[in-house]
Design goal:
Blueprint: H1 9-26, H2 29-58, H3 63-99, H4 103-130, H5 132-138, H6 143-158, H7 160-175, H8 179-203, H9 208-231, H10 250-263, H11 270-323, H12 327-363, H13 367-401, H14 409-438, H15 442-449, H16 451-455, H17 457-501
Helix pairs in contact: 2-3, 2-8, 2-9, 2-12, 3-4, 3-6, 3-7, 3-11, 3-12, 4-7, 4-11, 5-6, 6-9, 7-8, 7-9, 8-9, 10-11, 11-12, 11-15, 11-17, 12-13, 12-14, 13-14, 13-17, 14-15, 14-17
Length: 503
């Protein structure tokens, strides 16, 4: 007999959803963004530390090992691009669905994104193993760098499916307004990586291979923790076990067996034939629904694919350009870019705290809150990035020196200072891209996301080294970021004006 005094799980889920809806649509915008961003910033920093911590602990092996870690960053960037394509694609849609109080659709998207990320990660891993040696040469390896790159790259490729799924779960939890759990997952993995690096690299004398193993272990722990959170009931949406294209119910499985048996039978009762046709129609609908969901998630995630994927392209082009001037130059540019990656992670993390607030309130038709979110995030990003830029300019030389002796120290300092100047401009570009992705204006989001390491970067990396040699390589990314910020500003101002009109 059913006990009416026991609360239904569905009711509890609805209560959680309603509570979350109130929080996302009524909490003062600045405090809500700061609350979400604190954990996302730390989460992004934790994820970024993998590569730079690995680089620090292998620096004793020489500049060739440092350069190898820097070169493999482009592979990490590609894996991140895939993970963020499905993660941000699903996350943007999930935040809007939850704003509209459509928990079922949100769960469907989460399940589909996890499945797609897993398949894509396995494909990346298999392709990387098949062409590993040509890959590291293409990425910018010299003969001396290649040996280290192959050892380290094996473990980075092995990590691909784990990382892809982790990035999806990370974004899903943040979109739901649960960034703390995303932080626990990502942070735990990063801490484990930092602990294992000195043990494996120096203690057990595994060298750069130890750094790769540490990365694999850390990423695996992150995935396990976030899976536990999603499956334990802490999440409002969880991983939708009733996702038609992923899991079949016991009833349907049984009917499929009957259908298969009947299909092979010469004699089919009328009722059986009707049931078979019904099952076939349902399965076709399931397949169509999954394909449509997958297409929508991918389309929404394309701006993230451009934003992260072009990081891979830019890193490859920078390394190949720097290779012409020797291992020291490759190492100096790599160190500068990794330090800048920390600042970039902070800004992206802050933006990812901003995105669900915008998406949720846009879905709830709270345009005035959307406007407040844009203006607050933009102003705070610009001010913080300007302060950070000044500090980086002042301490550029000692920062670069942390990663060992480098004959190209001055070049690394030049590169880092150019990054420092570009930080406020990059803030404008990031806020613009994430805004349009969050509200579903994918065309504008793609255009903006493709500027800093695509539209502006590609001609600059060809022209500047031609006239300024290695100095041209060092300043290319910074100049591209400045141009991207200037380009993005009008789009952002128009969006703010439209929100003010429609409030």
């Amino acid at each position: 007999m059913k006990n009416d005094n026991v609360p239904c799980k569905t009711d509890n889920t609805k209560d959680k959803a309603q509570e979350n809806h109130v929080k996302m649509t009524q909490t003062p915008v600045p405090s809500l963004i700061l609350r979400l961003s604190c954990s996302t910033v730390v989460s992004m920093l934790a994820g970024t530390t993998y590569n730079i911590v690995d680089m620090y602990f292998v620096s004793d092996l020489g500049n060739s090992a440092v350069a190898a870690v820097g070169i493999l960053f482009s592979v990490l960037a590609m894996i991140q691009a895939v993970g963020y394509t499905f993660g941000m694609g699903a996350g943007s849609r999930i935040s809007r669905f939850l704003g509209e109080q459509k928990e079922k659709e949100a769960g469907r998207d989460a399940s589909a994104a996890v499945l797609m990320a897993l398949v894509a990660g396995l494909i990346l891993m298999a392709a990387g193993f098949l062409w590993q040696k040509p890959l590291v040469r293409f990425l910018g390896s010299t003969d001396t760098i290649e040996i280290y790159a192959l050892d380290y790259g094996f473990w980075i490729l092995l990590t691909a499916p784990v990382m892809c799924v982790s990035y999806v779960l990370n974004n899903v939890l943040r979109a739901e307004g649960m960034p703390v759990w995303a932080l626990v997952g990502i942070g735990s993995g990063a801490v484990l990586n930092a602990v294992l690096d000195p043990i494996l690299v120096s203690g057990l004398e595994l060298g750069i291979r130890g750094a790769g193993i540490a990365t694999f272990c850390g990423q695996s722990v992150s995935l396990v923790i976030m899976l536990i959170v999603m499956l334990s009931g802490k999440s409002v949406i969880g991983l939708n076990k009733n996702m038609d294209s992923v899991n079949r119910s016991r009833k349907n499985a049984g009917m499929d067996g009957i259908a298969d048996e009947a299909a092979n039978s010469k004699y089919k009762p009328v009722g059986m034939r009707v049931e078979i046709e019904k099952i076939k129609a349902e399965e076709r609908q399931k397949g169509q629904a999954f394909r449509q969901t997958a297409a929508d998630i991918t389309r929404t995630g394309i701006p993230s694919s451009f934003r992260q994927g072009l990081v891979c392209v830019a890193t490859i082009l920078l390394n190949r350009a720097a290779r012409e001037y020797g291992d020291d130059v490759v190492a100096a540019i790599s160190v500068s870019n990794k330090v800048f990656a920390i600042l970039f992670a902070v800004m992206v993390g802050y933006g990812q705290g901003f995105a669900p607030v915008v998406g949720y309130n846009y879905g709830a038709k709270e345009n005035d809150r959307v406007r407040k979110a844009i203006t607050f995030t933009l102003l705070s990003q610009i001010i913080a990035s300007a302060v950070a830029g000044v500090l980086v300019w002042i301490f550029a030389s000692p920062i670069i020196s942390l990663f060992g002796e480098n004959a190209a120290l001055d070049l690394g300092v030049l590169s880092l200072r150019m990054h420092a100047v570009s930080l406020p401009f990059m803030a404008v570009c990031l806020v613009s891209g994430m805004l349009f992705q969050a509200i579903g204006e994918i065309g504008k989001a793609i255009l903006i996301s493709s500027t800093r390491q695509g539209i502006f970067f590609l001609p600059l990396i060809w022209l500047l080294p031609m006239y300024f040699q290695k100095n041209g390589v060092a300043v290319t990314q910074g100049i591209s970021d400045i141009l991207s910020g200037i380009f993005s500003l009008p789009f952002l101002l128009v969006a703010i004006r439209m929100c003010r009109k429609n409030k």
